[in-house]
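Recap from last week: sequence in, structure out.
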Amino acid sequence: MKNPQVNYLLMVSEISLWYHPKVKAVDMKTVHSSKDAYAIFKEHWDEGLIGFLEEFKIVYGIPNSSD
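Predicted structure tokens:
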């Protein structure tokens, strides 16, 4: 018998995402402008699948301590 107190519409699945870079920060490409970011994204995006596959990319920013 189902518990009438539980509202199943409010239950959601949970997703965890972890990122462990294989490249040292000093070896990563530097983004100085949106044009740089576009070029890096374009290198790693499969344009043949862009209309068929939901995909996302993330750029992690690390503040420059010399600013």
